[in-house]
Amino acid sequence: MQAHIHGSGIGTAASVQAFAARNLQLLSAIETTLGVLKADTAYVRIMAGEVEDCLAKLKAEQSAAQLDPSGRVCELIRKCLDSASRMYADNKTLKAAAERDSRLTADDGVVEAYDGFLDGLRDLHDCHAEFLDWVETHDALLESSSGTAYATADDLFAAMGIKV
After folding, report:
1. Which of 10, 18, 67, 128 is the most exposed place for a label (fewest CB within 10 A)?
2. In 3D, which of 115, 111, 116 has the Cα closest to residue 100?
3. CA nearest to 134, candidates 69, 56, 70, 65
């Protein structure tokens, strides 16, 4: 990062000190931001990996019983999806702010760090979505049939209490 003192003439010692202090504060903020984003990216990647591992184990097991008959697990997974979506939106806004910040340069790595974190959040969301889809499909295939055949979709909707 290059520092330039704008203005005419030579700056006073006090103005040079103030400029230097401001730059140190900016560098500290950049360093802190990069550290937090690096750590958070690692955390969301670990969580995504754990979800992938859990799904792989469930697929390998091929349980003959429903996994979530109460729907509680799927409800919690939906909350995880919502959280990942909110975090993605919030951090996309922060990335846009970093892109607009004239004090930052590409060499600072802040925008790139946000890109990495956003990729990690997207992966986490996708892993949870795949997990949810698999559990719901698995359980739906194991539900007992009502034994009733419906002649039309309208008949099925009526039996489900849905007005069309």
Report:
1. 10
2. 111
3. 56
CA–CA separation, 85 vs 93, rounded Å? 12
Gap between the Cα atoms of 159 and 155, Å rounded: 6
Instruction: Say if residue 54's pLDDT is above 60.
Output: yes
pLDDT for residue 139 is more than 50: yes
CA atoms within 13 A on the CB side of 31: 7
Q: Could you tell me what percentage of the chain is helix, strand and coil, using 3-state DSSP and rounding each to the nearest 5?
A: 75, 0, 25
Give me the residue spans of the domains in the chain: 33-142
Amino acid at 64: A
Quick check: 161 pLDDT over 90? no
Q: What is the pTM of this model?
A: 0.77
